[in-house]
Design goal:
528 residues; alpha/beta; 5-stranded parallel beta sheet; 5-stranded mixed beta sheet
């Protein structure tokens, strides 16, 4: 793996190079840049997986670099390192996909904890990317999967065989217009939660309507989960009329009133992505509050995105109060601010959920609590979109209140356990369960404390890590059994948690200095 450090201060770059555990994270190549302009050249040349970046730099600053990476190098993982403890910078970093935000002077432990986590995230995402590539290779020419795959390639401007265009009757059109529809959770519920059946039915109905006019084709845009693209072989004015007919048919036959956005009119297959991107932008900015009357939207209206970061001090006070009631008025104020113009865009909701998870993660870290983080923000929001493309705000608020209440209960529980010296309780738990495999996650779940906190505190208390402690207990028990019983070595091994007696013998000799049989013989001689 490769890493890039971007900072206009040389001593900062040297400090990160010195403090980071590169070898432990399998990073073998380290590059440096003093500004964003040089960093972009290095990224395009060597493709580093991990990028450390300052925010304020000459030429191209950190914000501009993050924005460029968001558009051109999304697979890279960024860690912002800056001396500016300002929510403005934090919000910018988060908006463009930064994995974390560290303040100068750099704390070595925090740096390495963050580096290890980000490397693991990159590895997991790399596996997902490779799995996705492998899956795409298996797609054959069986419709509708073949249709969806080929037409998705076409929208993405990937090379496509002319025969495919002829197969789908897309060559002779004088104009093309892309329309876009998002599959909502409410629509899927109409089909008892079966996403594939929902897609299959919607595409059949839509293509039946389009084929009546020989006006185009609809397909599942496989690059984005739940998107249906309608490729209309008409000018935009005619496309709007056709799309209204499709919308009415879906409402009459299936009871669905889905929003459909319409992109730019283009004259060439190679320009379809422009039309799609315009329709996608409209879809992201659509109003899902329930106040949008016309479900066929043709014009893009950018809306101001409001941030949760401005409520940081109020959130802190509510957490310190430790009661759910302290959050009620805060949630009400946030709702009032977000819906002040009687609109609530899809993009605003995505931004809101993203910031909520970021703030929630920070508070869980503050109290050393484990947390499950969703990697699909859109899916989280889509759960609250009904069959009419309306966001169920009250249901969403109820869900968040439950999550906050659970967090507060865990904080109280943890504080109580801390007063009872939880590490000693963990030591007792380990002693009681030494004869079976004990995973750190099991202990974390049992005591409601993060694995990292347990590992660190246990070693501070007993000068040994948990796995070594388990081995020491097992060896003591083995010695007792060897002295006081006639049990066979493999029976003793099974009793103390080893399924493989050969491995047990190896560990015993390493710890005690002699084999189990030699130890038993020596003890028998001592007795005589």
């Amino acid at each position: 793996m490769k890493a890039l450090i971007v900072d206009d201060e040389r001593h900062v770059r040297e400090g990160i190079k010195l403090l980071a555990d590169w070898a432990g994270n399998e990073i073998t190549e380290i590059y440096e840049a003093s500004n964003g302009e040089d960093a972009i050249q290095i990224i395009e040349s060597v493709h580093p997986e991990i990028i450390f970046s300052d925010m304020k730099m000459p030429k191209i600053d950190g914000t501009q670099l993050l924005k460029w990476m968001d558009e051109h190098y999304a697979e890279g993982k960024t860690i912002v390192v800056t001396g500016y403890d300002d929510y403005h910078y934090m919000r910018k970093a988060m908006h463009y996909g930064s994995s974390d935000y560290l303040l100068k002077p750099i704390d070595p432990k925090m740096l390495n904890d963050t580096l290890m986590r980000v490397v693991q995230e990159w590895k997991q995402e790399e596996v997902e990317r490779k799995n996705k590539q492998d899956k795409n290779l298996l797609i054959n020419k069986m419709k509708p999967a073949y249709r969806d795959q080929q037409l998705t390639h076409m929208i993405n401007n990937d090379p496509i065989d002319k025969n495919v265009l002829e197969e789908f009757l897309l060559i002779e059109a004088k104009a093309y217009t892309i329309a876009l529809m998002q599959l909502s959770n409410g629509a899927i519920e109409q089909f008892k939660g079966d996403r594939d059946l929902t897609l299959f039915t919607l595409l059949n109905v839509i293509n039946e309507e389009l084929s009546r006019h020989n006006s185009g084709i609809a397909f599942h845009y496989v690059t984005a989960k739940g998107e249906i693209v309608l490729l209309i072989k008409r000018r935009k004015e005619e496309a709007v009329i056709l799309i209204r007919g499709v919308h009415n048919t879906l409402k009459e036959l299936l009871g669905l009133s889905c929003t459909i956005t319409i992109g730019l009119e283009v004259t060439s297959i190679t320009q379809l992505n422009l039309s799609y991107q315009y329709a996608k932008s409209i879809m992201m900015n659509r109003d899902v509050s329930g106040n949008q009357q016309d479900k066929i939207i043709t014009d893009k209206k950018e809306k101001e995105i409001k941030s949760l970061m401005g409520y940081a001090s109020s959130i802190k006070m509510a957490v310190q109060a430790g009661e759910l009631n302290a959050f009620h008025s805060l949630i009400g104020q946030i709702q009032k601010d977000l819906t002040s113009n009687n609109q609530l865009s899809w993009r605003q909701l995505i931004h809101l959920e993203n910031e909520y998870q970021m703030i929630s993660t920070r508070w869980h870290k503050e109290f050393n609590l484990p947390m499950n983080i969703s990697t699909n923000i859109e899916e989280q929001i889509n759960r609250f979109i009904d069959k009419n493309d309306h966001f169920q705000l009250e249901a969403y608020k109820t869900r968040k209140k439950k999550e906050i209440a659970l967090f507060l209960r865990r904080v109280k529980r943890q504080n109580t356990r801390k007063s009872q010296n939880v590490i000693h309780e963990i030591e007792k738990y380990v002693k009681a369960n030494f004869h079976r495999e004990i995973k750190l996650q099991e202990i974390s779940n049992h005591f409601y404390i993060s694995r990292e906190y347990i590992s660190r505190k246990f070693k501070q208390e007993y000068n040994i890590n948990i796995s070594e402690y388990v081995v020491s207990i097992r060896m003591k028990k083995a010695q007792e059994l060897l002295k006081s019983s006639n049990l066979k070595v493999y029976d003793i091994a099974n009793m103390i948690g080893y399924q493989d007696d050969k491995y047990f013998r190896k560990v015993f000799k390493k710890i005690v200095g002699v084999s189990p049989n030699e130890y038993r013989e020596k003890k028998l001689e001592d007795i005589k």
